Amino acid sequence: MRAKLAALALGMIVMAMPAVMRADPVTSGHGVRGPVTNLPLPRFVSLKTDDANIRRGPSLTHRIDWVFKRRGMPLEIVAEYENWRRVVDKDGAGGWVHYSLLSGVRTVIVEQDLTPLRARPDREAQINAYAEAGVIARLGECTLEWCRIKTGKYRGWVEKKALWGVRPDEIRE
Questions:
Q1: Which pTM value belongs to this model?
Q2: Which residues are registered as beta bridge partners of 53?
Q3: Which of 77, 89, 100, 167 has the fewest CB neighbours in a 10 Å radius?
């Protein structure tokens, strides 16, 4: 009887939790939708401003843990609550940020130093330029193995494994 009461109490607690806390979208796989936007979770976005306070919880009363200072930085939204989005960066650092500081414009970070930007999605194609690790680039179309990116006046095809901010199985037209 005591075990049944404990299970019932736990079930009531789970039901009372905000929808954002019921499932871990990072581990629960594809098909998870945000309770606020009905958009897929997790999903990539970019930072709209040069400064964004990243808070411990989804409100202005929560402590600021981080300040992201790089406009265009790709972030991954892993949860939603009202006007707040829980984000993580490529290193796993993150917290809650107001949705108005985020943009749907897709960007990526080059993770491998001196990554070649090629004229075509082919390892033998002409190299247009090289990108250093840490460069933020605008994301264009992607195949299973390659993505077209643009950074400053340079553009080209990069192997997807050299980028953070795009899923390995993601195809973009």
A1: 0.80
A2: 67
A3: 100
Q: Which DSSP string do the residues of the chain spell out, in sequence order? A: -HHHHHHHHHHHHHHHS-GGGTS-HHHH-TT-B-TTT--BSSEEEEE-SS-EEEESSSSTTSPEEEEE--TT-EEEEEEEETTEEEEE-TTS-EEEEEGGGEES--EEEE-STTEEEESSSSTTSPEEEEE-TT-EEEEEEE-SSEEEEEETTEEEEEEGGGEESS-TT--B-
Closest by CA position to 156, among listed 123, 121, 124: 121
Of the candidates 142, 90, 149, 83, the one whose C-alpha atom is nearest the C-alpha of residue 115 is 149
The CA dihedral of 70, 73, 78, 82, to the nearest 10 degrees, is 60
- Residues of each domain in the chain carrying CATH 2.30.30.40: 23-105, 108-164
Domain 23-105 matching CATH 3.90.220.20: the answer reads: no
The CATH class of 108-164 is mainly beta
